[in-house]
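Data availability excerpt. The first of two example chains:
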Amino acid sequence: MIDIAALRSRDVGTLFAAVLLLTGFVPSVGAEGRCPPGQYPIGGQGAGGCAPIPAGGESTGEPRATGYWIKTWGAISMAPNGASGTSAGKLSKSEAGKEALKQCNSTGAAGCRVSFTYKNQCVAAAIASAGFNGTRFGTGATEPLANGVALDDCKSRGGQGCEVIYSECSDPVFKSY
């Protein structure tokens, strides 16, 4: 038997720790309480949860936006006599159409109207020397792709000697914050 009165205060602490370990009592230690590392407890009264500990302005490893993309528009206008006008890089569909009409009308042609509009891509116009009367349009991510689409459409309509008469891109513009 242990004489508790004879134990010094240092030995009492050791004895108390030994009794706790032998009885299976293991206290929960940690600044986050019931939450996993990197989180802290929130809520209470039976509605508890955990939330991430703020990084204090440090990077979380997730990408952050540095700006945004602005759409740009282009248009092609045509008149019955074959006159045309074009625009690219405009900030709105209506602005692109107005510019294309202005160019077509400046040739003195009557009956100019917007035939094609596009945004954030390239456009091509193709005509045939025989077999098909009219203009075929194609769009694509690059001018060569748009040219191919316009030429294929021209040929599929029976056009012979199809050739691209116009191609242009209206690329989006990146604006930094």
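And the second chain:
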Amino acid sequence: MTAASPLGTCLLAKLREAFPEREFVEPVEPHVLVSIHSPHPDVGRLDIDDDGDELTAHIGRFAHAHLGGHDDLPDGPARHAAIADDVVAWLRELFADRIEFYGTGRAGGWGIRSGKRRGWLSRWVFGARTYVWSGPLDPGA
């Protein structure tokens, strides 16, 4: 893990506190703050980019999520803490398999699992497989 900004430093501290059992791997690209491998090889790696004013999570080759923002707060420790808290909450959902994602490598998406199967248009455009952090879901799900 590397700290690229005050926001990055705040996030890293919160990640270590919230997920002491997780193995964070050294990022391979300089813009990546932290990387975490999925337990399933088809999912790959989660990379969190430090964009300075927000964080972007890239889920394998599937999709990305812009996390944070909090334009209602002035830049500083309170804003950084709010963004880091959002990321920790999002990661709790991801690690608990309550977020699903899909994609072709060129385009994809993610959302909170609803228990319903993705629509035919989504499956046609983004591929039939749907994944969670622990691996692919049954295609009939």
